[in-house]
Design goal:
- With about 350 residues, the chain is an alpha+beta fold.
- The protein has 11 helices and 22 strands.
- The chain folds into 2 domains: about 1-40 and about 95-170 and about 260-330, FAD/NAD(P)-binding domain; about 170-260, 2-Layer Sandwich (D-Amino Acid Oxidase, Chain A, domain 2), CATH 3.30.9.100.
- The structure holds flavin-adenine dinucleotide.
- Flavin-adenine dinucleotide binds near residues 4, 8, 37 and 211.
Length: about 350
């Protein structure tokens, strides 16, 4: 089997299948891309246990996330403690370390990793596929009976095979990293404002991430594209600006701008291929469920691939059908979250989210 993409979803798929089948994982980057997205949901514990990774994950010493403090739907902060969750606390990850660790587990369990590798062609080859790979300037054919698209929200493989991405909105995110001189407890901070919403979380080693989310076509996006713009805009947020001042936050390190919209791949699997992670379902960061979804679909995708390779002709379509209720539940939760903020009904960012069918159309 060939897995295209060595992010969390691709690595989770590869590490679960490698003990039973031959797995080749390809990524066009040598190392995992530096990327924002550090909150790991408490329920991920169950998946890590199922994958035999729980003790090893704890040994990586990511920071616990004890609570989330939100200013959403009104001016007063509201705190939700991790203790109320049946799965306990979540985590604030060192994301590069987490992604690199999953890749390393996959190779230890027997998957072959080729990175950087560029796929320049995909051809049907009997009941399977032939890929043209570009490696060190040389073209190399690779044959496989099953392809897995784990290439992230652009679904690079599935789209070449004819699948369609349904994009639900135009959410984008501007972010920057920094350091806290007085790191407090592991609390995630979220604050809504007329043009969108803010997120900040403490990370391991006194680091902190700060991010603002708005829509790509709104004027608010101008202040989102660079660190200076973000910091100027932050100064007007009473709750978040004072919380970050208390923690002694100073910007340091990378800053960036990226897409953060919700996407659904239609279909999520076809003859001889399936998609996992963001390639199958791309989540709004407000849900903090993207990594959980990457691990879950990586695991479920590996089980479906094993059944398919063992002769079960319905395995891939059953996998795709299993993702539909997940997408439906995600959309209804997201609608409830955005619907809870009604202070700026005239602002297009909130107006669109309170009539989501119109936004999607
Ligand atoms: C702004 C923002 C904030 C987020 N915050 C959170 C959060 O707090 N908590 C959370 O759980 N989730 C969060 N997420 C979502 C989370 O980051 C993703 O769900 C997760 O990274 C998905 O993993 P993946 O493996 O599917 O895709 P990716 O992490 O995107 O990995 C895809 C891999 O495929 C490779 N690739 C891509 N194209 C090709 C190609 N053509 N050929 C070969 N390789 C290719 C890439 O190099 C990469 O290694 C956030 C997302 C955004 C945008």
């Amino acid at each position: 089997m060939v897995v295209l993409g060595g992010g969390p979803a691709g690595a989770a798929c590869a590490l679960n299948l490698a003990p039973f089948r031959r797995v080749l994982m390809l990524d066009h980057r040598r190392e995992p891309a530096p990327r924002i997205g550090e909150s790991l949901a408490p329920a991920a514990r169950r998946l890590l246990v199922d994958m035999g990774l729980w003790e090893a994950f704890l040994a990586e010493r990511h920071a616990p996330c004890h609570a989330t403090r939100t200013v959403w739907g009104g001016p007063m902060p509201v705190e939700a403690e991790g203790l109320r969750d049946l799965d306990g606390s979540g985590w604030h990850l060192d994301r590069a370390k987490f992604d690199g660790w999953l890749r390393a587990v996959a190779t230890r369990r027997g998957a072959a990793l080729v990175a950087p590798a560029l796929v320049t062609g995909i051809h049907q080859d009997g009941a399977g596929w032939r890929l043209d790979l570009l490696l060190d300037g040389r073209s190399l054919p690779v044959r496989t009976c099953l392809l897995v698209d784990a290439g992230g929200r652009m679904a690079p493989l599935a789209r070449r095979l004819g699948a369609r991405r349904r994009v639900a909105d135009r959410l984008v995110c501007g972010w920057l990293y920094g350091e806290d001189t007085h790191p407090g407890g592991g609390t995630t901070l979220v604050e809504a404002e007329p043009g969108g919403w803010w997120y900040s979380a403490p990370l391991p080693d006194r680091r902190r991430v700060l991010a603002f989310h708005t829509d790509a076509d709104l004027p608010d996006v101008a202040s989102t594209r660079c660190a200076e713009g973000l910091l100027q805009r932050l100064a007007a947020r009473p709750f978040l600006a004072s919380a970050l001042a208390r923690s002694g936050f100073t910007p340091a390190g990378a800053a960036g701008f990226c897409a953060a919209h919700s996407t659904t791949l239609l279909p999520a699997a076809g003859p001889g291929w399936l998609a996992v992670g963001d390639a199958a379902l791309g989540f709004d960061p407000l849900s903090s469920q993207g990594l959980f979804n990457a691990l879950y679909t990586g695991l479920a995708g590996a089980a479906a691939a094993d059944r398919h390779l063992g002769g079960d002709a319905a395995a891939l379509s059953a996998y795709a059908a299993g993702l539909q209720p997940i997408g439906d539940a995600y959309r209804s939760h997201l609608q409830a979250w955005y619907g809870a903020e009604r202070r700026w009904p005239q602002h297009p960012f909130w107006q669109r989210r309170q009539t989501p069918d119109v936004a999607e159309a």
